[in-house]
Amino acid sequence: MKQTRWLAVISAILTFVWGPAVALAQVFEKVEGGAKQEVPAVPFVSIAYGIIWILVLSYVVFVAKGVGRVNKEIDDLERKLGGAPRK
Questions:
Q1: Residue 46 in domain
Q2: Does the structure show a pLDDT above 70 at 68?
Q3: Which of 9, 11, 40, 60 is the most exposed, fewest CB within 10 Å of its CB?
Q4: How far apart are CA 85 and CA 80, in angstroms?
């Protein structure tokens, strides 16, 4: 029980000491006259959209082929079982 109390006291002390130190270490300081680098966003955005559209269209084609194959198999099964074909 004593050990638990000491651990609680030590963790509370560390929290109150370490917390503000971490917050102060993350303060933003503006740098004047630093090296500037401008990267044009248009090519990267265009490439990203192109890749996304290619992936979406590929998925749609893949799913459409699967649905077509399943419909064909259902029609074949209905024909083999002698049932009326689907509409």
A1: yes
A2: yes
A3: 40
A4: 10
Q: How many helices (H) and strands (E) does the chain have?
A: 2, 0
**50's tokens:** 């192109």
Q: Is residue 63 part of a domain?
A: yes
Distance of CA 22 to the CA centre of its chain: 29
Q: Which two tokens stand for residue 33?
A: 């006259």
Phi, psi of 9 (to 5 degrees): -65, -45
Q: Which residues span the domain enclosing 44?
A: 40-87
Tens of pLDDT, residues 18-56: 666 666 666 677 778 777 778 889 999 999 999 999 999
Q: Residue 14: inside a domain, yes or no?
A: no
